[in-house]
Design goal:
Order of helices and strands: HHHHHEHEHEHEHEH
CATH superfamily of the largest domain: Cobalamin-binding domain
Number of helices: 10
Number of domains: 2
Helix content: 40-55%
Low-confidence stretches: 217-230
Distance between the termini: 39 Å
CATH class of the largest domain: Alpha Beta
Strand order of the largest sheet: 2-1-3-4-5
């Protein structure tokens, strides 16, 4: 008897195979079948993470990483997906500076997080991908954000994240911001090693942390320790 393959598995595989046309068709099927837009984006994120693993294993190339990002952005531009990120621009809860750290070209998780943060009243400054520690420091000095987001999918980005936090310390601005890390490879131990305030493997959890952080007028309630709400 032939095993039934679900739409979610087919969608993940299509992203992994970088089959753009098939991805778009399966996204349409998934949405029509009642799968929530954010759940669809999570499936695509899983597929992109597989692309990242193939890149780390030298089976895919940089061009493939870029293609995965293009597919994600095409899905993100669909009307039914964009509706999830509609926001009231008159309200600003806080300011975020965010980028994918040096050595990594992935922007899927970052872009999803930005969309959700903006939908929840945050002003965001997107530094893009492959962002050096110097660029982060320069932006923090210029933008004076409340929160700095360091994103990375590849495992070696732990070093880039630590280098960035160390650079913020050297510049004398580390204590002026909260630092949140995003990436599936991150753990409580790696977060402590990097010197960040918080890490998450789920964009929605990160948004909730940031909201609670800014809503609370006394930031000291959160302390300087490592937190993980996932």
């Amino acid at each position: 008897m032939k095993k039934l393959v679900t739409v979610d598995k087919l969608l993940i595989k299509a992203v992994e195979d970088l089959d753009e046309d098939r991805v778009m068709k399966l996204v349409d099927i998934a949405l029509n079948n009642g799968i929530k837009p954010l759940a669809v984006l999570d499936l695509i994120k899983i597929g992109v993470e597989r692309v990242g693993k193939l890149y780390e294993n030298k089976k895919y190339f940089i061009a493939d990483l870029i293609m995965a990002g293009l597919i994600f952005r095409e899905v993100l531009e669909l009307d039914r997906i964009k509706e999830q990120f509609q926001r009231d621009t008159s309200k600003k809860l806080g300011k975020l500076v965010i980028g994918t750290v040096k050595g990594d070209l992935h922007d899927i998780g970052k872009d999803l997080f930005i969309g959700m943060m903006e939908a929840n009243g945050f002003e965001t400054v997107d530094l893009g991908v492959d962002v050096s520690k110097e660029e982060f420091v320069k932006s923090v000095l210029a933008e004076k954000p409340d929160i700095v987001g360091l994103s990375g999918v590849l495992t070696f980005t732990i070093k880039s994240m630590k280098d960035t936090v160390d650079a913020l310390v050297e510049a004398g601005v580390r204590n002026d911001v909260k630092i949140i890390l995003g990436g599936n490879h991150l753990t409580k131990e790696s977060c402590e090693y990097i010197g960040a305030d918080f890490f998450t493997n789920d964009a929605s959890v990160g948004v909730e942390y940031c909201k609670r952080l800014m809503i609370n007028l006394n930031r000291e309630e959160y302390g300087n320790g490592v937190a993980n709400l996932s």
